[in-house]
Amino acid sequence: MLLFGAFKILRGAYYVRKAKRLEAEVTAIEARTDALNAETAGTKAERKAQQAAAVVALGFVPEADLDTDNALPVSPERTAAVAAVKAGDWEAGAAYLDAAGQDWEERWQRVRPLSELAAEDDAWLLAWRAARPSDPSAALVNADTGVLVAWNVRGSARASHTTQEQFRIFRELLVKAREQAREAQRLADPADPVPYMVEQSISQGLGYSHEEYRELWSQIVERDPKNLSAHTSAMQYWSQKWRGSHELALAFARECAASAEPGELLSALPLIAYVEQELHESDLKPETFFKEPEVLAAVEAALADLAAADPADWRSIRLRHLLAWFLFWQDRDAEAVEQFRHIDGHIGAMPWYYWSPSRYVYARDWAVREVTPGL
Questions:
Q1: Higher confidence at residue 91 or residue 32?
Q2: In this model, does residue 67 exceed pLDDT 60?
Q3: Would you tell me how many other CB atoms lie within 10 Å of the CB of residue 215?
């Protein structure tokens, strides 16, 4: 019995030593694995950095330098006007806005930078309104500022992450902004659609019925039937995330695009509808959905529309942003790169503003590498 007991003790000690050796071996293997993983990650990061540098060497903009606020370069006129207004010179802002004349698309684009300034500090706008109480441009900026202030309170979070107090104040501010928009409409040139375009964002937040929105829309298109900014805003109202559905948005987009002449760039609308649908429906994958026959046809129509447009028409940049995204997913890399060369550097446009700049860089760099031998 004593011998048997001693044997058991010795055998137990043997297994303990063996277990310790195995544990040490496992620890060593894990350490080597971690080192290899770190080395692999380092190699991948180095390779990624090299690829990014190679694309930049071809003339493309580094990710850190991308302008995420604007779809195209900011004009010197806008830069000067913004600087003057920040210094308190409201007359410079008034002159900048009025210089758009009856180019209603341009007038709309000039309103927003001024409204953004007033949403932060409206002292200069109050001075403008006091000096010219019946100035339609001052009333217009005031109305759009009211809209921006309301949406700043609402924030960009989903409804489930927005407090009831935020919603209450948001609605109160939008009701006030609607009154300001109606004032701007009364003071405006009867041909000016822009005060009605300001009301489009209000309609989304206050939940206009379809009948109410169609009435607002009729006021806009009676004044400017092919205004791309107005149509783009209408796409948001008719989208499923706001007051419509995928079907209603696509029907609206197709109807408008079909009624447009070549070069009027309304072919962007169906592409917007497809972007919104793919983002909203989790079962849709861009690598397959964007290759569906109807989407392929919409892209071809957009390319033809772009070719017919005035090369100097800055609105074409919006369409190029969309085309770059669709052509990338359709594996038409050379055509995608052509669009990326036109838009590169400024990505404050659909679809890029839905994501971080890395999504843009991934698509751009992939397409560039695919068409550049040895890259």
A1: 91
A2: yes
A3: 11
Residue 138 confidence (pLDDT): 99
Give 159-171 pLDDT, tens digit per residue. 777 788 888 999 9
pTM flag (> 0.85): yes
User: Could you give the angle at the alpha carbon of 121 between the alpha carbons of 349 and 203, nearest 5°?
Assistant: 50
Residues with Cβ < 8 Å from 355, sequence gap 6 or more?
Answer: none
Residues in the chain: 375
Return phi, psi of residue 239, to 5°: -75, 160
Least confident of 31-35, 124-128, 243-247: 31-35
| Contact call for residues 242 and 236 (beta carbons, < 8 A) | yes
Residue-by-residue DSSP string for 14-42? HHHHHHHHHHHHHHHHHHHHHHHHHHHHH
Does residue 113 contact residue 77 with C-beta atoms inside 8 Å? no
Of 167, 69, 103, whose CA–CA distance to 310 is shortest? 103
Residue whose token pair is 């206050």: 206
- What sign does the dihedral 122-125-129-134 (CA atoms) show? negative
Cα–Cα distance between 220 and 194 in angstroms, integer?
Answer: 8
Residues β-bridged to residue 67: 346
| CA–CA–CA angle 293, 294, 298 (5° rounding) | 115
What pLDDT score was predicted for residue 3? Answer: 45
